[in-house]
Amino acid sequence: MIKTRLSQPLTSVRMIELQSATQRLQVLPTLGGSIAAWDWKLGQQWSPLLRQWDGKSKDRYAMACFPLVPWSNRITEGGFMHQGQHYPVLENRPGEPYPIHGDGWLQKWRVASHTSDTIQLTLKSNRFDGNPHSYRCSQTLTLSDNGLSITLAVTHLGTESLPYGLGLHPYFPRNAETRFSSRAEGVWLSGHDPIPTAHTRCFPQTWNYNQPAPLEGPMIDNCFSGWDGKALISYPDRGLQLSMTMDNCSSYSLMYRPPGHDYFCFEPITHPIDAFHISGKPGLVTLARGQTLLMKTHFRVSAM
Known about the structure:
The chain is mainly β. It contains no helices and 26 strands. The strands form six sheets. Strands 9-10-11-12-26-22-21-16-19 form a nine-stranded antiparallel sheet, with no helix packed on it. Strands 15-24-23-20-17-18 form a six-stranded antiparallel sheet, with no helix packed on it. A five-stranded antiparallel sheet has the order 1-2-3-4-5, with no helix packed on it. A hairpin with a 7-residue loop joins strand 10 and strand 11 (134-144). It is globular. The two termini are 25 Å apart.
């Protein structure tokens, strides 16, 4: 039987916990609608399926997962053009030369409802920090017997239409035994920073995960093309595997593989990095007032 309780971490930020016999999900509504932890019961111990928040930092990059809305990753040129008008977008993270990950992750979400197995968070954003987007977004997190589903839905509230995108930024634990696989046909390469400079179907060494492979190697912070919406992480040391599926996948995924760390990110996204400045704006969806963009992602746990 699933129980719901409120707990107070070290920062006294409100945290909502859903717990069942096999899972524990902790959510931080006011810290960007982030997930603090998602754990699986192995024997008598909780085992992390996402990298756990330390209970101290308010930096969203220290969370287990956070939503990306109303677009994902980076935008260059200080904004974007749409229907002949330039819309400025400000830098939003210290040390980051481009605005990144939209602005939903920087705002306080509220709890719209929660039951024994589901919590729904909502955010109403009106040109946050001078950004052009006005929108309403909901994030619904639902525990099932064998996993977690996350649904993001963003509705445009502005008078003029604007392009939108969505994504999730989960941090997965890894070690030398962890294996990862995900289909890709190509990858956008970058120069001195993560902004794409060219697309190739020839994967650099250790970048091809069409077959299960370890997560060792140099930095990857790149968008892949040709994704079929399915990924699999295997943890032989724990005897379990975690699958991720994205409904209605638009063929883009992003991997962040920092060398020397015990985590990596594989992000389900609707559009590639800096899609606002790629011909045709691939993956971005133009919404008129009242129109909604939806993204559903499912995480499932099974024994190896």
